[in-house]
């Protein structure tokens, strides 16, 4: 492969301790030189004065929808969306159709992602066969293939015994067991479980979603008369998982935590020395259940949008370092599915293209986090947890050139109709952002460059 030599000039490099001005010379997929006043006769020069440059973002929670749900997204559209958002590595969730529960499917998703070659795709596998929650997958064989993370995301690992086995294996083999913490019987999904094998074969539709919880339990849900997903559904599984972790060890990662109670439990577990990490999703940092009160399905997501108190607790958990990572839970759905009634529409919000701009605007510009905090939460820490040595920085001479260039002075309005993702219904439509990813470099090559047409 022929690499173009790139000279990024005059940028502000975001490191773990702050921002320093430097030029970056990139050649053969690596950062060859970093410092001031670098010159090079042949390089393509990118004038990046005033731009922030940081290690490419790493998303621990991305739904690529292949195989089987290509109407909603494909590996290629998801990866294009990812690089437009400044990501250079993503973890592909296994709740596809069929789910990623065998070595054959891991290999097939991986080879498609390699053909696209826009970001590193870490293929996660299910904890249980058919993602049905009970019969474990062949974790040893899958780990042997390099699977770093197991999850039944979409639902929790239903059987506590299956979770115990997974964590026991994790302690021996080193992989991560990630869980979507919501107790199925408390969110109206215990009946759905009976048909899960069929669901995983055929996908499940609007009819089956009727009666399944779709909104936080509280005044708003009572007024609307909708089936609920109460906060204690999350508390129950977080507590269960931590109890099993304390008993057998291993590495537990809690996905998209959404309640103050979860953050309290997480904090205590960490204080007691348990090997647990956790993520929050962007939507839980910017929306509350109020947003869903108009029954617009763009605000339907699992776990649901919670209260103002929970949102503040999530932000505090980031500030205090209780939560390790912001992961997008990029969950695209075909536009026609998000046009169904609230109760029947699928849950999920697509955000990988705008997550960094959103949180830069809401948290960095408002003084909640520093820029280096945000880069740690969205790049360095997830890379460290996953053991992705070529990602997460710090950017320095010799390191792999996975880099995002961000223009903090750009203000823009998000128009999902021109997004790379196939998900066009978005709660962020028309939202104004400060700052935009203008260039993404993956292994030394420019994989995204903003054409200044979207303003
Ligand atoms: O809202 C959600 N959508 N939450 C999940 O856990 C799964 C995801 C999906 O796959 O659509
Ligand atoms: Zn989930």
Structural key phrases:
455 residues, binds (4S)-2,6-dioxohexahydropyrimidine-4-carboxylic acid, 13 helices, single chain
Write the layout of secondary structure elements.
Layout (H helix, E strand, L loop, with lengths): L5 E10 L2 E10 L2 E6 L8 E4 L4 E4 L1 E6 L12 H10 L2 E6 L10 H14 L3 E4 L15 H6 L4 E2 L9 H14 L2 E4 L16 H7 L3 H4 L5 E2 L2 H6 L3 E2 L1 H18 L2 E4 L5 H12 L4 E5 L1 H5 L21 H12 L5 E2 L28 H10 L6 H16 L16 E11 L18 E11 L2 E5 L6
Parallel strand pairs: 1-4, 1-5, 6-7, 7-8, 9-10, 10-13, 11-12, 13-14, 14-15
Antiparallel strand pairs: 1-2, 2-3, 5-16, 16-17, 17-18
(4S)-2,6-dioxohexahydropyrimidine-4-carboxylic acid binds next to loops.
Tell me the strand percentage band: 15-25%
Q: What level of helicity do the residues show? A: 25-40%
Average pLDDT level: 95
Flag low-confidence runs.
Answer: 193-198
Sum up the overall morphology in one term: globular
* Total beta strand runs: 18
Radius of gyration: 21 Å
What small molecules are bound in this structure? (4S)-2,6-dioxohexahydropyrimidine-4-carboxylic acid, zinc ion
Structural class based on helices, strands and sheet pairing: alpha/beta
In whole angstroms, the N-to-C terminal distance is 34 Å
- Biggest sheet, open or closed, and with what strands and sense? 8 strands, mixed
Q: Can you count the helices?
A: 13
